[in-house]
Amino acid sequence: MPAREHDGRVSVDPPLEPRTRERAAVRAGIRDGALVVLGYIPFGVAAGIVLASTGLGPGLLISSSPIIFAGAAQLVAVQLVDQGAALALVVLTVAVVNARHLLYSASLQPHLADWSRGTRMLGAFLLADPVYALAYSRFQGPDGGGARRERIAYYFAAGVTCLIGWSGLVAAGLVAGRFVPEWVPLGLAIPMTFLLLLLPLVKDLPGAVAAIVGGLVAFAAHGFPLGTGILLGAAAGILAGALVMTRTRPRAPVDVDTAAHAAAPEAEPEAGPS
Amino acid sequence: MIAWLGIVLSGLVTYLLRVAFLVHEKLKPPKAVERYLPLVGPAVLGAIALPGLIAPEGVVSWAQTVPALLASLVSAVVWRFTRQLVLGLVAGLVLWWGLLAGLAALGLG
């Protein structure tokens, strides 16, 4: 029971009971998460079809969605594991592919500061690209996302919806993969999806240079030992982008929100997943 | 078993990156990280995407590379105007299949 019902003060403002507001936040989280999941249908199903073509068991493939709740990294990790890559290489590649999550973590920190440490650490598990985008845009709103409990309700509702939705889409793709005839070529589906995820992230010249150099170096390194192409390409791309950045805007001030936003997909769920 | 270990460790490293600045309120990322981390996304996605766009079936040849790059270009243009990933993907794949079928019909595939 809220304390204010017992201490005699008249409640003036909140037009709604805290419980009602919390329930509304849960509904909003589920609705926004569901919209994101709708946008993820092609990528999730295509990912499932590609995963089904690996030699790994269905139990592992289905579990990989909730364990590595990050589409691109999940695909890369499963493919590397399937090809028998060294564990250290798998982990290093996943770390590079997901490095942008460091920025999400830093960017959400002020909005989650009044949560208990346990709640924050639990929430971190759900901090995938779309969940960051949804939480960030809501917590940046005029009311800051509401009281602590409303923010927690929204965040976890949206996060769990995305987690369940993504796992379901991949599972659907795993099943669909059995029905796609051999003669339908699908080799381009995943790289093309990654291209379409990349485009919204390229917002300036350094970003474009990083993407092109990263891609060309990774392609040139395709004869190198398994999986090192992504790492070499990423390193070369970042280096080239950083060089351009130093040339074009020397020591420009950056703050973590701008940086996280540059690293994240558009905050609007309709704009597409990453 | 080693496959499970790989997946679980990948999940663990993903979690550690996400929790890094949520463990303690005072922890802030260094300026260099804030400045250069936005380049990681484009560089990584470029590195993952481009080799597959140039050689979708793992080989570089006129019959494979040209249709794939053309379809990718169209896919990007469709996305640019609609801002819908789904539309870009469908347009690109349909064109790709059409080009492959056309080449096969001409005996060039």
Give the structure's gist in a few sentences:
Chain A is mainly alpha-helical and 274 residues long. Chain A has helices spanning 18-39, 41-52, 58-67, 71-82, 87-97, 101-108, 117-124, 129-139, 148-176, 189-198, 205-220, 228-248, 256-263. Chain A starts with 17 loop residues before the first helix and ends in an 11-residue tail after the last helix.
What would you say this structure looks like, in words?
- The complex is a heterodimer of chains A (274) and B (109).
- Helices cover 65% and strands 0% of the residues of chain A.
- Chain A has 274 residues and is an all-alpha fold.
- Chain A folds into two domains: 16-87 and 98-176, no CATH class; 202-257, no CATH class.
- Chain B has two domains: 1-49; 55-109, no CATH class.
- In chain B, helix 4 (62-82) runs antiparallel to helix 5 (85-105).
- The termini of chain B are far apart.
